[in-house]
Amino acid sequence: MSRDPSSTMRQVPLAFGPEPVLRFDTFVPGANAQWEQVLMALLAPNPTMPLYLWGPPGSGKSHLMQAAASQTQSFGLRVAAFDLKSPVPWEFDEEARLLILDDCDRYDRRRQHEAFRMFVEATTLGVPILAAGRLPPVDLPVRDDLRTRLAWGLVYRLVPPTDEQVRALLRREAERRGITLDDEMMAELVGRAGNELVPLMELLDRLDRYALSSKKAVTLALLRQMLAEPDEI
């Protein structure tokens, strides 16, 4: 009997409209010396070779998983994604063509059990697996069988981009949208979101939508007006 996973499986949405910001070509490799190898593994996921990414917050793990999910969905395929916020029990969608396991370093005992089940089901069905956490597999505080499986494929450490690289990418994305970010506007955005790329990109997207809805040019005054209002879009 077929199962309806909609109540338990988190579907990964395409980010920020028709052209997602979190794409492989918008990732800042920074000091990641093995970036070309990582990118090849992400572009052509191998069902016999799980990929585990680890690094501190801001290193780009979520960016790359979202990009991988978006790429898979762009082919009309389904993605099964689970993280710390996914309610248990988890159910594997047998039509999924990519399994994503995020926050692996913070799973409690029950989520460790669920992650192990998802890993086994995906492997049995020949579904590629992309997992991530803040720690390398050897240091993960999880059950041994799950730790072993997360470590048996490709394991890459991600290094966070510098503040300068983050701001350069934000300016590039703004220019793509026809927005010019001067130093004052950049300071306002960083003051709200810090120097982490994902929240900055989310603010930029919100600003773009706000300007379109208000039919006004993007200025420092408009940015401050937007930041003073709750985000209801």
Automatic annotation (TrEMBL):
<dbReference type="Pfam" id="PF22688">
    <property type="entry name" value="Hda_lid"/>
</dbReference>
<dbReference type="InterPro" id="IPR013317">
    <property type="entry name" value="DnaA_dom"/>
</dbReference>
<dbReference type="InterPro" id="IPR027417">
    <property type="entry name" value="P-loop_NTPase"/>
</dbReference>
<dbReference type="GO" id="GO:0003688">
    <property type="term" value="F:DNA replication origin binding"/>
</dbReference>
<dbReference type="InterPro" id="IPR055199">
    <property type="entry name" value="Hda_lid"/>
</dbReference>
<dbReference type="GO" id="GO:0006270">
    <property type="term" value="P:DNA replication initiation"/>
</dbReference>
<dbReference type="GO" id="GO:0005886">
    <property type="term" value="C:plasma membrane"/>
</dbReference>
<feature type="domain" description="Hda lid">
    <location>
        <begin position="163"/>
        <end position="227"/>
    </location>
</feature>
<feature type="domain" description="Chromosomal replication initiator protein DnaA ATPAse">
    <location>
        <begin position="23"/>
        <end position="73"/>
    </location>
</feature>
<dbReference type="Pfam" id="PF00308">
    <property type="entry name" value="Bac_DnaA"/>
</dbReference>
<protein>
    <submittedName>
        <fullName>DnaA regulatory inactivator Hda</fullName>
    </submittedName>
</protein>
